[in-house]
C-alpha cells in the first residue's frame, strides 16, 4: 500500500535555505546541495515522496535537527530535470503539512520520521466557521479579479500574484487550513510570515493571520479593476495619467508601500511644525501636493523634495536672544584680542547704540586693514559678545551673482546662494554674519555680485531678500552684517555708503609679542596637545621669530611659525620629554636660517638710491628707488612697472631739479648732456601713486650732485613744481613698515603731522619722525654733504632688493 494515503512514516528530507513552501500547489524547486540531490535520487527510486523543511537560519550549510523547523511539507516529486550532475530542478506537488518527530539519519542524506499535524485550535466551531467564510469570500474576490485583470492586459508586464485557482475551486475548499494554504501564494508574504503560517498549528490563528493581507489585496485588485473601467473610452493622456496616479497612491496606501507618502507625510509634518510664515507654508505645501502626484523616481520629484527640504532648513522665525551687556561684551573683546583699543571702543559704541535703539538699522561695520590683524576673528568675538550665532562667508573671488543669490531651480543641481546657506548654517535669523573680503568681490559677465550684496546690505530692501532658488522672500533685517576688507578702493561706492569704516592697522613688534604670548602661543599649544608648562618659549625667542622669520603687518605668518615650533615640540613631547625649552639655536633648527635680515643694516649710503615708503592692501612696505645718469641727450627713462601717476611724479622731480639746478649746484650743461634712468626694483609688481615724489626728487638731485643718500632715511610725500611736500595717505602703515625694516629717520609731509598721533609710542621712541614743508627739508638731511668718492666703472651693482613677505598687487600711495 502506498504511503500516499498514510501520513506517518520515514522520508528523505530536503532542507530549504530561503524558500518556504506551503501545501496546496504544484511548483518548481531547485536542488543544489549534495545531500539534497542524494535525497531526491533516493525518493525517486522509492515512491517519489519527500519532506521539505525550511531552515531556521539560511546560513547553515549542513543543518541538523535543531536547525530545522518542527513542521514541514510532504511533497511528491512530479518531475526531475538534471542540469548537470550536481544540479536539479524538480517539479513538486506540495501535499500537506506534517509534524517532524525526529531526524532518523543525517548521512548520506537527511531522513525524518513524521506524523500527521493535528490542529490545536481553541476557537468555537461557530467562530471558526464564520472566519473561514470570511477568508473564503476574500479569496474568491482576489482570485476572480486576478483572472479578470490577467485576461485584460495580455502583454502581462505587471507582476501578478502567482496563484492559479479559479473561483469555483476556491468555493469548493472546505478545510480552513487548506484555505489558508491556497490563499498564501496570492498574498506576496515575507519569509517570516510564511514560516509562521507553516508552523502554526492553531487553525483559527492561521486564518486570522492572513485576513489583513487578504483584505488589502482584495482592495488593491478592485481599485486596479476600477481604473480599467474609468479609463474606458477616455483618450486624454493627462486624464489617464491623473487617474492612474490617483489610483497608484491609493494602492500604495493599501499595500502599506508608503515610502514616498511616508516621506511626504514626514515633510508635511515638518512643515506644520516649522515656524515659517503662512505664505511660505503655502508654497511648501503646494510643492508637496505636486510631489504626491509624481513618481518618486522622477527628477521633478527630487527637485521638489530638495526644495522643500531647503525651505525647512531655513531657520524661519528662530531668533536667539541678544545679550547686549556692554561690559560683558567689553570683557569678551578684551579677553580675545590684545591691543586694538580704538577698534574695540568703536565696536562697543556700536553695540551700545544697538542696545539703546534695537530697531534702528545701524550702519554696517566694515573692518578694513591688512591681513592677519584680526578682522575676521573680531567678527567672531562680536558674535560671542552678543550671544549670537556666527557665520562667515568669504566673498574673495566671488564672480557670479548666483553665488550670492542662488541659482534658479530650473538648473540641474541648483542651490540657494551663500546668504541663505549661511542662515541655514547659523540656525537663526539674527546671526552675526561676517562677509569676509568684500573688497575682493569681482564682477564679470555672470552678473554683478556686488549688486546682489547691495540688496543684502540695504536695510530698505533686505527685509524681503529673494534668493533665486528659494523664491519666497527671506527677512535679513535682523542679521547683523559685519564686512571685512583689505582696502577700500575696490569696493563700489554704493556699498561703501552703507558701511561704517573701522580701520585696523598693522602691529608693532611689541604688540605682536603680546599677541603671540597671550593668544597665538596658547592657542597653538592647545591645538598641538602640548601642556602650558611643557613648552617654554621666552620673549626673546618670540621676538626673534617676529623679526627674523616674519615680515608682515599682521600676525598670520607669526601664527604659522609658532605652529611650526609647536609641531617640533610635539614630537619631543611625544618621544617622552617632560618639558621642552627653546633656545635661539634650537629655534634655528626648527625654523631654518633666519628668513629676513634688516634691509637697511646691510646697506651703505649710496648715490642715487633712496628708500621710499608704499602702502599696499597687505600693509605698508619699504620701496627702493634707483637713479642713474649717463651721457645722452637729456632724456628720461622710467622702468619698474610704474603707473602713470608715478611717472608724472618722476617728471615733476626732473622739472623741479632743472629749475633749481643753480641753487643746488648742478651744472645745466650736465643735465642737458645726460640721460636719466629711474628704476624701481621688484619690477613684477605694479607701483603707482604720487607719494614717492619727494623721494624721486632726492634721488635725482643725488645723482646730479654726486652726493650719497643716507641708508637709514626713508621719505614719503607728494611734490608740486614749487617744491612743496604734499600730504599722503596710509601714513601709519608706512611708518610701521619703516620701523620693521630698521629705518632710523622718516620724513613725512608737514600736513600729515596729525597722523603721528596714531603711531604707537613704541615706534615713536625708536623712529625719528620728521615733518617737511619743502623738498629742501628732506634734502638737507638725506643727502650727505661730503662729495662722494669717484664713481667706479662700470656702474655699481644695484642694492639687494628687499625681501618682502607681503607685497601686494599695486603700491598706491
Ligand atoms: N589683536 C589680536 N589679539 C589676539 N589675536 C589676534 C589679534 N589680531 C589677530 N589675532 C589672531 O591672528 C590670527 C589672524 O587673524 P584674522 O582674524 O584671520 O585676520 P584678518 O581677518 O584680519 O586677516 C587669528 O588667529 C587671530 O585670532
Ligand atoms: Mg580675515
Written overview of the protein:
The chain contains 28 helices and 26 strands. Strands 17-18-16-15-21-24-25 form a seven-stranded mixed beta sheet. Helix 18 (509-527) crosses helix 19 (539-549) and helix 19 crosses helix 20 (556-574). Residues 153-161 and 801-813 have low confidence and may be disordered. It is of the alpha/beta class and 813 residues long. Bound molecules: adenosine-5'-diphosphate and magnesium ion (MG). Adenosine-5'-diphosphate binds at residues 337-340, 371-377, 484, 515, 519, 554-556, 559.
End-to-end separation: 117 Å
Q: What structural class is derived from the secondary structure elements? A: alpha/beta
* Mean pLDDT across all amino acids: 85
Ligand names:
adenosine-5'-diphosphate, magnesium ion
Q: What is the helix fraction of residues, given as a range?
A: 40-55%
Percentage of residues in strands: 15-25%
Biggest pleated-sheet summary: 7 strands, mixed
Low-confidence stretches: 153-161, 801-813
Number of helices: 28
Report Rg: 45 Å
Please provide the count of β strands.
Answer: 26
Q: What overall form do the CA principal axes indicate?
A: elongated
User: How are the strands of the biggest sheet laid out side by side?
Assistant: 17-18-16-15-21-24-25
